[in-house]
């Protein structure tokens, strides 16, 4: 899948998911591109998981090695990630986390401000200290690719 093909598919899924959730679709698209390496990651290919969402409860899951940043140090861990039937299912699940999770209350207050929204979700979503800058860069790139 090319970057452009990924953007087309992910943009359609983000638009559809945001109709129910109210989450900003371009941020969803950018986050999926960043987290899945434009749909090229093993996790996205094998589990339709475009956001690195960990498995909880009885969710279908797949175990993979991942890099996390703990106290400023990169560590490699095994983690159980959620497995989805489709891109849209994954996007809806991610939007549900952001729409309902107590940790994302401050993000929901910034729904009309993409930069502010990204800054708020980054506080709890990722361990990478450069996550905000990376996500903003991808957001600018995808905005130039959406037709």
Features:
alpha+beta; 147 residues; globular; Lysozyme; two-stranded antiparallel ribbon
In short:
The protein is an alpha+beta fold.
Write the layout of secondary structure elements.
Elements: H1 3-21, H2 25-36, H3 42-47, E1 61-70, E2 73-82, H4 87-100, H5 105-108, H6 114-125, H7 131-145
Antiparallel strand pairs: 1-2
Mean pLDDT metric: 94
The CATH architecture:
Orthogonal Bundle
Q: How many helical elements?
A: 7
Order of helices and strands: HHHEEHHHH
Point out poorly predicted stretches: none
Q: Terminal Cα separation, in Å?
A: 17 Å
Beta strands, count: 2
What portion of residues belong to β-strands? 5-15%
Percent helix range: 55-70%
Tell the overall outline. Answer: globular
Radius of gyration: 14 Å
**Main sheet properties:** 2 strands, antiparallel
Number of domains: 1
CATH topology: Lysozyme
CATH class: Mainly Alpha
Class from secondary-structure proportions: alpha+beta
């Amino acid at each position: 899948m090319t970057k452009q093909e990924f953007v087309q598919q992910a943009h359609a899924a983000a638009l559809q998911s945001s109709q129910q959730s109210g989450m900003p679709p371009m941020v969803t698209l950018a986050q999926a591109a960043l987290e899945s390496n434009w749909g090229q990651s093993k996790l996205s290919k094998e589990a339709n998981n475009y956001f690195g969402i960990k498995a909880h409860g009885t969710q279908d899951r797949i175990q993979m090695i991942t890099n996390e940043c703990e106290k400023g140090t990169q560590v490699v861990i095994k983690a159980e990630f959620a497995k989805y039937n489709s891109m849209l299912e994954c996007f809806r699940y991610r939007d549900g986390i952001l729409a309902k999770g107590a940790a994302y209350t401050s993000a929901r207050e910034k729904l009309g401000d993409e930069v502010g929204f990204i800054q708020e979700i980054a506080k709890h979503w990722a361990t990478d200290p450069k996550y905000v800058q990376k996500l903003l860069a991808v957001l600018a790139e995808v905005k130039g690719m959406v037709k």
